[in-house]
TrEMBL record:
Pfam families in the cross-refs: Glyco_hydro_1 (PF00232)
Source domain of life: Bacteria
Family as reported in the entry's similarity comment: Belongs to the glycosyl hydrolase 1 family.
Keywords: Glycosidase, Hydrolase
SUPFAM superfamilies according to UniProt: (Trans)glycosidases (SSF51445)
Stated name of the protein: Family 1 glycosylhydrolase
Residue ranges of the TM segments: none
Length: 457
């Protein structure tokens, strides 16, 4: 795919977006009375962050919102996905909202609208007030109610101008990495005892969706990190391992949203979820679109360790990798196959939004114009895969690059760079990469092609 060509007319149907999250770019963690979050707690543990860094100043975006709005606008984006941190708005996770923080996000919404970019906020991108985690976090049902109250506070302030919302980002990663194995905040290692967090997050999404809709929202959805699961060997035990992993990573989150029911966990010997009367009705009717974040496939094999986990995650053979090495294999066809399979499982699938897709590669730390051909190749392949899925009947309506900016990459600190824009974290200087220009030109060429096709019809 070249910037000047339109590989499929299907791409003319897409809206185009780029994404960031607050913790990863904002800095100024305590500015305007912001509260402490689970990540402030997590990064204090010795060795928790690979390079020992913190999320301050990151990209310093809290002090430079005009810069980010200008970068989004210059790309020609339809929408810009950003997040609003719960702990800034409700420092203690309850009570009235923090006026200064709400003023900031209200201003940022206006900056985007002035530039013709639709704001698309995420209400929970892994940042929970520490006080909420102290009372149980996502293990506690009450957190769902508190999240609904937080959503109402934000929508009361922004709902007159914001109609499109993501509630939660990647609940699978919160459950699996945050509560099951401890690789992300809050750093719990509960294994299968983490599963109640899946239900409480989906219930929180439903509570937030209801609050948003009563305040003018027209499009509310959740975005999960999906992966295409591959068995290492064509053997019954590996196919069973792939089935279990697919259920835990993908279907425990997608099925209740799309079908109003959970997969049969107890048949696999897993603990039942804490579902109460009315929960699944609320969850099943809660989305206007279904969000899919996708980065890589996952290859598994049957575990030989004899422990409680029946699968091992192993390298995907025969494919290139990103800057994360074998943890993040590159296989664009896996995105197409995932989307086609999702539609086959759920024929009444609502509109699909690709909420994140991108890759990290080694790049210089100091300010530079980066010729990131590897990122362009990654994005080109995955956008082509989306086009193939659309041609197969999958109702994809939007594509989002992760990320607009290089950022603080959670437990990997500043060691991984995903951005279309290079950030020198020592000086704050921002330099668009070759991929920024490529994406801008692609968007323009797709629009030109779509306009031409429409004229011919």
């Amino acid at each position: 795919m070249t910037p000047a060509s339109v590989p499929s007319p299907a791409l003319g149907r897409l809206r185009w977006s780029a994404a960031t999250s607050a913790l990863q770019i904002e800095g100024s963690r305590s500015a305007d009375g912001g509260g402490r979050s689970i990540w402030d707690d997590y990064l204090e543990a010795p060795g928790a962050i690979v390079d020992g860094s913190t999320a301050d100043p990151a990209c310093d975006s809290y002090r430079h919102p005009e810069r980010d709005a200008d970068l989004a606008s210059a790309l020609g984006l339809n929408r810009y996905r950003f997040s609003i941190p719960w702990a800034r708005v409700q420092p203690d996770g309850r009570g009235r909202g923090n006026t200064a923080a709400l003023d900031h996000y209200s201003r940022f919404v206006d900056l985007l609208l002035e530039r013709g970019v639709t704001p698309f906020p995420t209400l929970f991108h892994w940042e929970m007030p520490s006080t909420v985690e102290e009372t149980g976090g996502w293990l506690a049902r009450d957190t769902a109610e508190r999240f609904g109250e937080y959503a109402a506070i934000v929508a009361d302030r922004l709902g007159d101008r914001v109609a499109h919302w993501y509630t939660l980002n990647e609940p699978a990663m919160t459950t699996l990495q945050g509560y099951a194995v401890g690789a992300l905040a809050p750093g719990k290692q509960l294994l299968f005892d983490a599963l109640p967090t899946a239900h409480h997050q989906l219930l929180a999404h439903a509570r937030a969706a209801a609050a948003l809709r009563t305040r003018g929202a027209t499009a509310v959805g959740l975005v999960n990190n999906h992966t295409w699961v591959l068995p290492l060997h064509d053997a019954p035990e590996d196919h069973e391992a792939a089935f279990v992993y697919d259920l835990l990573h993908n279907r425990i989150f997608s099925t209740p949203l799309l079908d109003g029911a959970y997969p049969d966990l107890e048949a696999l010997g897993l603990p039942p979820l804490p579902v109460e009367e009315g929960d699944l009705t609320a969850i099943g009717g809660s989305i206007d679109f279904y969000g899919v974040n996708f980065y890589n496939p996952t290859t598994v094999t049957a575990s030989t360790a004899g422990g409680p986990i029946p699968f091992d995650i192993v390298p995907t053979p025969g494919v290139p990798v990103t800057g994360f090495g074998q943890e993040w294999p590159i296989m664009p066809s896996a995105l197409r196959d995932l989307l086609v399979d999702l539609h086959a499982r759920h024929p009444q699938l609502p509109p699909v939004i690709i909420g994140e897709n991108g890759a990290s590669f080694p790049e210089p730390d100091t300010a530079a114009r980066v010729d990131d051909a590897d990122r362009i190749s990654y994005l080109s392949g995955h956008i082509a895969a989306v086009a193939e899925a659309i041609d197969a009947g999958v109702p994809v309506e939007e594509y989002t690059v992760w990320s607009l900016l290089d950022n603080w990459e959670w437990a990997d600190g500043y060691t991984q760079r995903f951005g279309l824009v290079h950030v020198d974290f020592a000086t704050g200087e921002c330099t668009p990469k070759a991929s920024y220009d490529w994406y801008r030109d692609l968007i323009a060429s797709v629009r030109t092609g779509a306009t031409t096709s429409a004229a011919r019809r």
